[in-house]
Amino acid sequence: MTAMTDLTDLTVLSIWQSHTQQRLFRRLLEAFAYPGRLLDAADSGTTARLAILATLLDGEVDLADPHGLIAPEDGLRLMASAAAPEQARFVVADAARAPDFTPALGSLESPEFGATLLLEVEQLGTGSPLFLTGPGIASQSRLVMQGLHPDWIARRADWVSAYPLGVDIILCDAAHFAALPRTTHIVWEGY
Amino acid sequence: MNNTYELPLDEAGYAFGFMDEYAKKEVRRAILKAICIPGYQTPYASREMPMGRGFGTGGLQLTLSLVGGSDTLKVIDQGSDDSVNAVNLRQFVQMTCPGVDTTEKTEAATLIQSRHRIPEKPLTEAQILVLQVPYPDALVVVEPSEARRKTMHGEADYSRLLVKLYEDIVKFDEITISHRYPTRIHGHYIIDPSPIPRWDVPKLHQSKALILLGAGREKKIYAVPPYTLAEPLAFEDVVFSVEDFRDAAGIRRACSRCGATDSFLDEFSNEAGEKIYQCSDSAYCDEQLARQTSHAQTTNTEVVA
Asked: Nearest CA to CA, how far is A191 from chain B (Å)?
């Protein structure tokens, strides 16, 4: 009877717990509903990157990590199967490097199979601005960041050009994130 | 059989929000895609809920995937907080989500689950509206094959739906759709906005709050994001109009309980067989009534003074 391991000493990182994931999901929901709005993931006890992936992934979906950003032990906990960035439902990538793949864009009948890209930038909140319009934005919103390779903006414009097909992007730095759904129109002065 | 076995305490109850975490993640992923593709019916693995399909299981799965300890929930059915469907769903959430507050006041709620109405009081960015949907596809009246409907939606080919509306005008001189009025979202997908009356359709347009629609039986989730174009289907010469509450003399009917002339009215018959009209949104009606009572009291005090 006493042979069972005592589990009370084990501390589980907050992000693997359901109430943290619920709280984070609500912020992700806000990010997608109001594109360009900067949200905080600092209280998840880990990086925004891992917090977002832990909130969204399980064994039912696949993840591509072409730049090797996910530590192997976190990869195991995420349970998502590995896939090529051209096929995966979720792709995590370093935004400083130019995109060298075309993600899944979905089909006319099933546009939800367009990938969700999680792009990690150096910093959100300072740097050059993107001007955003579209659903979820009352008139215009402004998202400022550092460390996004300009090719991402140009390639994304191609990927979302045949609506309803396209990709949906989450931008994150160490502690913050913002979302750019495929419906968001981006104007970038740096271009 | 092991008679000494006892179910561990943490497995005897339900998880917070009744649904398991995998089910919630599935719903959550579908919600995000639904927001990214406004009006698109995103398929999801709809779970069995401990109530019949058709009793709001789609809305409930959305609510349970969203709700957390800091939320205040309002549940309404046909505008009322006190009808059977609303009371049952609210009690279910109270039972399975300890710590979640409930309210009947529209402005106090962070999460509103509704069947067939959008509250009269304008919603804010801090609120999310969840609508229960029985039939998610507006094209089902003109095309029985779902595979073909999906192609039509993708191509935004709604010519046959427009023909249906045109036939209505030819036969009846008006578009005869009273509720579930087909509405085009973000200039592309046409949705069935759930059985809300025409009165509520303009509230979808440029709403400050996120609106999520869930169909449990049909396994679909779709969304009208905030600040998004929502246009009820109409013709240049036959414009969309909401319900007309004027009587034969052309005077706007008022609620017989609170006197409001700016709300959606339900028609009842009293014992004498006369028609009476009352606000469908019970929270709005109560608020109008309370305002009058407090106003009357102030006036009385002034008179006494």
From this structure: 25
